[in-house]
Structure formats: C-alpha cells, structure tokens
C-alpha cells in the first residue's frame, strides 16, 4: 500500500506541511509495510491546467499526476485562503484524470489563522472527493495558528487527531482492498436442493 501526503501550500515551512507530515508518519506507524511519500507543491514547478489529456503533460506536472494516480490512499492538506483551498491545490485537482481517485481513501487537513474556516473540509474538500468518487476518511482535521508555538505543533488533541487520521487512512484502504478482492473472486454456485 502506498500513502501519498500532499501539502497544498507553496510555502516550504508551512503549518500545512507539518500537519500533513505528522499524519503520513502516523500512517507508516500504523503499518510498517506501508510505503509513504510526501509532496510539497512548493517544490514542484507545475503548469496550469489547460484542458489537455493528463498523459500529455511533462516534467514536474507529469511526475505529480503519476504520483497521485499510483497512490492507494492520500492525505491532502491545504491552507485556507478566502474561505477555500489554495489555487495551487485546485489546479492539481484540475490536472488529474477523472478516475485517478476513484475508490481511494482520502484524509483531509485544513489549516487557517483562526477557527473561522473550520468548515472548509466539509464544504470544499469533501465535495471534491465525492466528485472523484473517493472515500473520505472520517475525522478530517482543522488546525489553526493557536495550535502552534514558534512554528511547532504542540496541541496534543490536534496531534492525536492527525495520528488517528493517518491510521484511519491505512485501515480504510485495507478494508477497501479486502472488499475489492471479495467482489472480484468468482462466487461458488449453490447446489440445488433435491426436491421430491
């Protein structure tokens, strides 16, 4: 199983990055066999979506699309700007193939300056997951500036919820994998009862 952590912030030392990193580390702790990868959009030189087929992009844009397509589960975080996700992250959702998230587990994290935008997960991110027919991991985490001190995430409740989000992403993916295997296996025909 491959879990991809994606920070929708383009600021390299961001609260979003620290939060996503924590959740991805928890996913790895939940199952040491899990392969994890972290992507920070600030390190990728992606182009704006222009409507072409996703397979036709090149460079960092193609590499990012491939990472998302190959992931079994994702933990996606975004800072909240103007009561919404970042433009950089919205562009990622525009770039990826329509079926690239289908059936996958996605855990969401949003970060903001205050409590005012805690509903962004429910009103902005969960509907995107639904559009892509992904499974939202329950317990999305909203983190605000008051949870940090000198750039370190110190609020124990938030740390626990990030750990639970990472662990739940692995558990949900495992359950989805088992379900898909059961569905794909041929059913054994029932023997006809002798009627006399």
Automatic annotation (TrEMBL):
UniProt KW Oxidoreductase keyword: yes
Listed name of the protein: NAD(P)H-dependent oxidoreductase
Flavoprotein in keyword set: yes
Keywords: Flavoprotein, FMN, Oxidoreductase
UniProt source species: Halobacillus amylolyticus
PANTHER family registered for this protein in UniProt: FMN REDUCTASE (NADPH)
Positions of transmembrane segments: none
All residue ranges annotated as the NADPH-dependent FMN reductase-like domain in the record: 1-146
